Amino acid sequence: KRRIGTISSTEFDQAQELCITLVQQYHFPEVFKRDPQSLPTELKKLAIFIDHVGLLRVGGRLANAPLSTDHKHPVLLPARCHLTELIIDHVHKVNFHAGPSAMLAFLRQKFWIPRARNLVR
Question: How is residue 36 annotated by DSSP?
C-alpha cells in the first residue's frame, strides 16, 4: 500500500540506511566478502565491522564509553561517492554553512569518511 504525504523520521532513517548499505557494498566489497587480505591498508587500521543493520562501522577504543552507537562507531562512507557528497552538502546547509573544522566535527558525529578534510574544503 502506498502512503501519501510526508515521510516520518523512521522512514527517513531506514531509507538512509538502505542507501548507505548499497553504497558500502559497491565501494567496499572485500569487507562484505570477509577477505581481510584484500583490504586496503587504510581500512585495515580502522577495525571495521558490520553492525546489526548491515552497515559498516569503524571500531575503536570507545566501545565502552557512555556514548551513542553513532558516536562510538561512526558509519564508514567512501570518499569518492555521490551519496557522500550529498550528505556533506546536507550537513553543510543544516549547520548554516559552517567552516571546514566545524563541518568535520558535525560529520564525525555520525560518519567516518577517509580523507574527509580534503572533501570538506
Answer: G
pLDDT digits (tens, 9 = 90+) for 44-91: 888 888 899 999 999 887 777 888 888 889 999 999 999 999 999 999
Tell me how many domains the chain contains.
1
Residue 46: closest CA among 28, 64, 33: 28
Q: Measured between alpha carbons, how far is 4 from 24 in angstroms, rounded to an integer? A: 30
| 116 within 8 A of 77, measured Cβ to Cβ | no
What secondary structure letter does DSSP report for 51? -
Confidence check: pLDDT of 40 > 80? no
Residue 3 falls inside a structural domain: no
Helix H or strand E encompassing 21: helix 9-27
How would DSSP label each residue in 59-116?
--TTTTSSS-HHHHSPEE--SS-HHHHHHHHHHHHHTTS--HHHHHHHHTTTEE-TTH
d(CA 89, CA 95): 10
Q: What pTM, to 2 d.p., does this model score? A: 0.86
Note down the domain range covering 31.
9-120
